[in-house]
Amino acid sequence: MSTPYPSQQQKKKGGNEPWRNKERHYCAICNAWMGSDRQSILLHENGKKHREAVEADLKKRRDDKAKKEKDQSDLEKVFAQVNAAAAGSGGGGGGGGGGRKPWEQPTSSYVAAIPSNSLVGSRPPNQHQHQQQQQQHKPKVQNRDIKPAKASSCFTQIPTETKTVPDVNAGHYNIEGTSYLDGSIYAPILEEGMPIQLWVGDPNASDGEKRDLRSFNYWKIALLAKVVKKRKSGNEQEVSSCHVSYLQNSDDDDETLKSNVSPSRIRLVLGSDPLLPSTLEEAHLALLGGEQTIQVDDNNADGIVDENTGLSTWSTTAIRKVSSHYEQNQERKRKREHEKELAEYKEKKEKEIKARMMEEAKYANAHDSALGAYDVWSSATSAVEGKTAAYKGVDINKETKVEVADTAKSLSKGMGSVAFKKKKVKKKSIRRTSADDE
């Protein structure tokens, strides 16, 4: 009778029984299980996916650590500034209060001006006594020499960026009903692909000569290929230089590329292209970053206060102007940057796929040919013994032992000639003709 339980011999042979606890290795980075033998672990750890996952994990940890340290340092700076400001505002007067911390500063109290023996079992002071006590305490407060603390200078020394507002009446002119924008003034709004007019006349010509109607032929229609912005040394002001392509003559087929063109040799035709502003107000707002806030001084206006709510009427304090043309240009710019990043990402992915296919093909075809194939299962011990570690073919870089001179000597002696031996014909006992019978 067969028992439902496995015998001792079956247990020794076993290995697939569900109740057996097989040791497995778990990779926390890849979230994968594998055999606990060294070969399986090494194959997984040397794989490309595992190495990429390890690099990504290490990079993420480094970034998190750097961000945490930066946040901690910023927080410490803020605490230092707050403590310094509190020490400067509360510890400026008195000789002994300057070195104390903000929470240790002495506070003025009315109790200090009253004798201690009069606090218990005495009547409260009348109005005359109260005035005398205030006069006694007042000189102590007035005699203090209040000086600003040095620690509060951290707020006063912070440089504030003052944005210069360009003149509305400068940088544009009108010739026979067409408005032009001067490139030297409107250099911040220049961008790639914008149609412009390029001055090809005298580089030292004045603005009056460039704006003269007789110099109209010196202006060529061109296209901005690239705008390069650099900062001056020791100054926060940006300097722009442009790469421009244009046709020197109307019969030319090939464009001429001119590099490092100064914005003073460029002018824009107002409203001639969707990339250009259509009105002077839009051009002025584009110089200011697409918006302008005008503060309204309404202090002299008499606000009517509602008796029921205690609130005054609405009043205008600031006017904000925005440019839809500038927002459209910024949206197109963001779209171009997104398409560029997407193309770079696709190219990177294609390279990774090709590299992975090459690596897989290298290991998949390792057994097909003995020449030029890599041995996947080779180890470092075989290389130490003098064998090939990762290449199981013939090493063609080594010198051959057979020399050309030895081969030439053997051929000169006639040893190189080849002769074929003729097979001897034996007489057979088979009768073929009548003459064989005789």
From TrEMBL:
Lineage: Eukaryota, Sar, Stramenopiles, Ochrophyta, Bacillariophyta
Record field: compositional bias (Basic and acidic residues): 52-77
Keyword Coiled coil appears in the UniProt entry: yes
Keyword Coiled coil: yes
Name used for this protein in its record: U1 zinc finger protein
Alphabetic keyword roster: Coiled coil
Coiled coil: 328-355
Gly residues bias (residue ranges): 88-100
U1-type domain span: 22-57
Domain of life assignment: Eukaryota
Start and end residues of each stretch annotated as Disordered: 1-21, 44-158
